[in-house]
Structures are given as C-alpha cells and as structure tokens.
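Dear colleague,

Thank you for sharing your sequence with our group. We've completed the structure prediction you requested, and as agreed, I am returning the results in plain text so they can be pasted directly into your records. Please verify that the sequence below matches your submission; if there's any discrepancy, let me know and we will rerun it promptly.
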Amino acid sequence: MVEALLPIADRVWLYPRDDDDNKLQPNVGVIIAGGQTVLVDAGNSPRTARRLLNALDAIQAPPVRYVIYTHHHWDHVFGAMVYGATTVGHDLCRKTLIEMAGKPWSHAYIQEEIQRTPAREAGLRALARAIEDWRHFRIIIPEITLSHLLRLHLDDVTVEIRHVGGQHAADSVVVQVIEARTLFVADCYYPPPAHQRRPDSALDAELIAALVKDDIEIYIDGHGSPRTRDEFARLTQEGRSTNGCG
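Please find the predicted structure tokens below.
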C-alpha cells in the first residue's frame, strides 16, 4: 500500500487506491485550503484512515474538517470514525447508512450474510479483512446532506458537490474542485455492484458523456488512475469492465 499522497493539482492530492483489488481500498481525495483539509471519501476502514492521517501529517496538513461521501458503499465510508470531522453526503446516502448502522456488524454477521447472498461473497470477505476490530466500530452518518447541489467555500477554493446518481449507486455524487479543474467521479459511472450485474452490464456511457466538460481537466474515479479529459471521454467507446464494491 502506498503511504504517501500523490499531488494532482493546486491544493489537491490523492491518497491512492491499493493495487491489490482483493483489498477494495479505493482512492481518497484530499483538498487543502482555508486552513482546513477536506477528504473525498473516508477509506475502507479505520486502519486505512489512520494511515491517511499519517500521510497528512507528513505534509503538515491542517486538521480534517469535512469528509465527503461519494456514495454509501462500505469501501468508501467505513474509515470515517477516525477523523472526528463533519461528514457530507446525499440524502439517500444518509438514509442507507442509518439502515446499515443498525446491522449487528461482526465477523459472524458477515459469514451469515455470505450464506444469505453468496453473490456478495468477494466483497464481504474483503470487508472482513479490512476491519480489524468490530467491537468499537461505528458507521458515521452524514451530518450535512444535499439533494442536488452543495458548495463549500474554502477561502479561494470552491468545492462543488453534485448529485448524479447512476447504475452503481443511486446516491452517487461527484466532487469538483473548481479552481483546480479537477473532478472526483468515484464509482458513479461503473456498472452495478458485482452481485447485481447482468451479462450485458457495462460502463454508463451516457453519464460519462454528461461529465465531460471544458472546465475540467483531471478526472479521478474510485478504483483507477487519474485521467485527462480526453482519456475519460474515451471510456464511452471502450466499454471496459471496472471493479467496484457494493
């Protein structure tokens, strides 16, 4: 696992995904402005979150003020309890995480879920590996929610959070750092989660096309490398299968 932040643009860094797909640790965006740090997603576990905090300390980043959830899937939100920060997500994200928080999370419960829904086995086993100790684990519910659009103004940097939905998760939002011409798209254009896919499931070409804009130069998804605008636009033709967890 890479332990250092990757510079992306002015005021924007990336805590890169784990190259081991079995670990299901996606990219986490880092925005530093106005004497505060904003994270785009929380990491897949408290262990990953602690590593990210160490990486932030290495560049003397200010405290984490906000954590923006791009959607509710566990690999994007289960690290949030470590930061002590205000969490932001879509209305549907809040509703779903409240339901998830009511589950009796434990290794035994995960085994029961695998028995109930064998198609989810790969993702659930990754979850079991990610969380070391369920005794003190908590799902952090979004404190600030949006239905369509929300802007955070951090001195001279504007962070725009916009609901786009999509087949991967109905609560998906994208996060644009306006001045840095960077867009975090997370998993919004991916196929449905693995256990919900059909043989004809593919990337959402219509959503990809809608996200291609002249004022965006860098696109960052949840489980891939950063792309230029042209590289991102070409995904509409590639029809490439992309890993993503549900």
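Summary note from our side: Residues 46-58 form the longest helix (13 residues).

Kind regards,
the structure core
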